[in-house]
Predict the structure.
Amino acid sequence: MVTPPSIPRATVARLALYLHYLSELGDVRPSVSSEDIGAATNVNAAKVRKDLSYLGPGGTRGVGYAVAPLRRRITRALGLTKDLSVAIVGAGNLGSALARYPGFSQRGFTVAALFDIDPAKVGRRIGGHRVSHLDDLDAIAASIFVAIIATPADVAQSVADRLAAAGVGAILNFAPTLLKTARNVVVRNVDLSTELQILTYHAAQGSKSGVAENLGSAEDKQPQVGS
Amino acid sequence: MVTPPSIPRATVARLALYLHYLSELGDVRPSVSSEDIGAATNVNAAKVRKDLSYLGPGGTRGVGYAVAPLRRRITRALGLTKDLSVAIVGAGNLGSALARYPGFSQRGFTVAALFDIDPAKVGRRIGGHRVSHLDDLDAIAASIFVAIIATPADVAQSVADRLAAAGVGAILNFAPTLLKTARNVVVRNVDLSTELQILTYHAAQGSKSGVAENLGSAEDKQPQVGS
DNA sequence: TAGATTGTTAATCGATTAACAATC
DNA sequence: TAGATTGTTAATCGATTAACAATC
């Protein structure tokens, strides 16, 4: 059995970035160089080549990378070949906004379910999605690939437990809570206030020197290992 | 003049994490150990100590760190001593949700303005905030510390330009666009679809081995250097 | 062929972490 | 004193990047 080459964490995040650029690029140009990609995404060109080399050789020396094939290769490497179903838990301010967010479907994610536990919300339609009661999670969990937690902090852990029990393997958590999850559940946290705090520090520094950065969004990203 | 010790990028993100934990902790316990903090935030205890050492020595051997003073020291190091004003640009789904988000004020950020350019939205109140026209930015820009861009992707760059021209030094960008900004503007990007894509890859890997992570949401985090 | 650009090596840099002396 | 825990060193690990041979 061939061991699939595991792609470094930082590289995965940048591949998603390159893919975004390549999508914007359309098909007006037949090829792009690592220099082009680097300029557009603020990444060193050598790093771009190194990142792309994890997908196996695919460029042409003296020419660059053919745009459409490269897009396909990154798409395949990230596991984005099929449309992926997303469930949103929490139909409050943030959950509702996410349910109406057009960006997900543009990049291959389909909001397949929107959950809440508030009887006043269950049954209503938000952004074309009917709000289901969280108790009905098991019925559709099998078709869900990623769940987004957009609940108040105090129930986020219990929601994560229910999602894990239902077999959901990936969680994007917007609640300001560090989730304790089993090892086979992948969690990414996006804490809006923490983002502002990090920005605050760098802005104070920046007014002295001059920097700018991003993600890891979140990338920078703090660790979250299963318990 | 004393050079202020510059704190490494990854450490800054974790300090925000520790601060969150210390806030949750309240004052029931007089002190915490690096072991305690590490367990709560999923960070190696040695790393916690190293991170905290950037603030100068503050713990007591054999005892740990006094909770309240440590909270104050991190708060000061991150520049969070005063309440900071936030402006939200874009009063659509996401901008409106952010304007109503209670988490900001809980962590010392005040939403001081909400901007849009849609005449149908200007003048309306959303979450207690009156929507102003973006043309009125200059009038209040001086009091703004961070701006959040929650506009469609196609206008995000021009909004960033206007914010920079008005003197706003820090931007949290939710639009799926890599902003080109001057060197003295600090930008952090939170791209929701990219987060899902990164999660997708790790989930596919995770079903083989078993991992879980987070931020740097952002930490991870992709680079974004000023042009 | 000359020019361009990949793919990869190897040097460098920075971040993580085990280990332990210092010390409460 | 014995036990606990910090603060820091030094080893390790992984990520970045300059450099360049390979080659279109």
